[in-house]
Amino acid sequence: MNYMKTAILLAGLMALFGAVGFLIGGEAGMLIALGLAAAMNLFAYWNSDRMVLSMYGAREVDARTAPEFHGLVAELAQRAGLPMPRVYVIDNDQPNAFATGRNPENAAVAATTGLLHSLSREEIAGVMAHELAHVKNRDTLIMTITATLAGAIGMLANFAMFFGGSSDNRNNPLGIIGSIAIMILAPIAAMLVQMAISRSREYAADRMGAEIAGDPTWLASALQRISGAAERIPNEQAERSPATAHMFIINPLHGRGMDNLFSTHPSTENRVAALMQLAASVRGGAGYRAAPAYSGSSSVPRSGGSRRRPWG
């Protein structure tokens, strides 16, 4: 059902993009708009992961520089039946994480130092399992395309004021009034579709992540702790690039009052409730095979414990 909903919403976003192009420039405008969308999506397909990781100053770690964290991701990837993704750490006090990449063979997962310092090893396992679920479901590609289309619709809507308001534009019978309406309403509609897709994919990744990690309560606990910290600790880079907010496991913009007006994430309370309901159903049935948080002898420090960094 989630996949069908996502497909319908993506189709709607493409239709909106074509409609705005048609209203601006007729059939030729629609074709140009669709061609522009294809070109932008192709660029995003090949370059989005490098761009986002560079934007956040992420540094890649491996089994030598971060044996515990890298080992955890490797074990979870194996449980999920995925190729080993590239692993990154972001120097940021806000606990958060995201996944990126065009497909499972070219995926990357990233966690902030705030997350690695403040969460227990089980909670970190729950978070990284969630991110690997995004990779397995190919949500990283879906959300890249969605964000690209939403941004392009906003750009086209701005063009409407310059090219869609002339008196001889038969495709837009409302003239300048119609152009203003397009400029205001089209980006809002695109944003709403983008948010609906993002929220749908978060619920699906929560469920699959719980299966990968082996215990839904690990992720539920992590979401509660991350959400509370995100409201107190700002992520300045995310504030400067709000279009990337949908990538994170928890909205990194929670520290600003207006950011809750249009949220790309379901409420933490609803996500936790769904996970706890899943945990109850698992206990009543066969259950999952819980994964050890780390295969090594040492672990990421719990909050209030040793501050030795697990990535070296």
Question: Secondary-structure map with pairings?
Answer:
Blueprint: H1 2-55, E1 59-61, H2 67-80, E2 86-90, E3 97-100, E4 108-112, H3 113-118, H4 121-136, H5 139-163, H6 175-213, H7 216-232, H8 236-240, H9 268-284
Parallel strand pairs: 2-4
Antiparallel strand pairs: 1-2, 3-4
Helix pairs in contact: 1-5, 1-6, 2-4, 4-6, 4-7, 5-6, 6-7, 6-9, 7-9
Would you mind describing this structure in some detail?
By secondary structure, this protein is mainly α. 62% of the residues lie in helices and 5% in strands. It has nine helices and four strands; from the N terminus they run H-E-H-E-E-E-H-H-H-H-H-H-H. It has helices at residues 2-55, 67-80, 113-118, 121-136, 139-163, 175-213, 216-232, 236-240, 268-284; strands at residues 59-61, 86-90, 97-100, 108-112. It has a four-stranded mixed sheet with strand order 1-2-4-3, with helices on both faces. A hairpin with a 7-residue loop joins strand 3 (97-100) and strand 4 (108-112). The N and C termini lie far apart (43 Å). Mean pLDDT is 78; it is low at 255-261 and 294-312.
Summarize this structure briefly.
This protein has helices at 2-55, 67-80, 113-118, 121-136, 139-163, 175-213, 216-232, 236-240, 268-284; strands spanning 59-61, 86-90, 97-100, 108-112. With 312 residues, it is mostly helical.
